Amino acid sequence: QPYVTRLAGAGSLRRELEAVIDAAPIGAGPDTYRALLLSANAAGKDSAAMRTWVWRRLKVRYLLDPAAPEFRAFELAFRASSDPVERGLVCYLMMARTDRLFREVTLETVSPHLQTPGAGINPDVVRATIEAIRQRGRFAWTAKTVAGVVSHLLSSLKDFGLLEGGGQRRIAPVYPGPPTTVFAARLGRLEGLTDRQILASRWFQLLGLAEDQVVALFYTAARHQALKFKMQAGIVEISLPGLAAT
To answer: Are 103 and 202 in contact (CB under 8 A)?
Structure first.
């Protein structure tokens, strides 16, 4: 997955994403999503140009295509809860799946602090991490591009509920529920991880969780019958719900 700087121009677009998914039937394809955005104006934009701008950015951030198994998993997790906090975490993991730069910078600069609500996040540290990636890859990113990525990365994390505050971004309390647990496990399964490896995967690291906390999440999800989970003598068995093609 290449590094891209799509965050230089816009953030999460979470409000627009939720509006169009809530307006779409289950299993809708990209043509339906496109029509909802461009013709039905599901996102409530004032001009055709802005509706097109939103469509182009949503489809690369969140795919909006049931032909992609990660989008089917995302849609199931998103629709499994009406809780805005839970939905924010599911959207967060989906954008981390599609945007390598967002994923890696967040893993390095924000995720390690998610167990310390109220801790401040220094934008200069985020900027330095992006600059290090730019230098390693010899990318011709301008200072304006980097500044845009820093700003929109932090605003996106606030949109998703991981950060709070205005000028000074601080860690917000994060409490993943069964839909987020199932989606994170599904992402691990889709990249070929074993059940044991899923517990320590980057998808749970993005949530700032140690392995024992991940195990607790799986037991909770199992009690809610969102999945099946067994762990005994180091042997892990995870059974996820079906992910039918649409």
So the answer is: yes
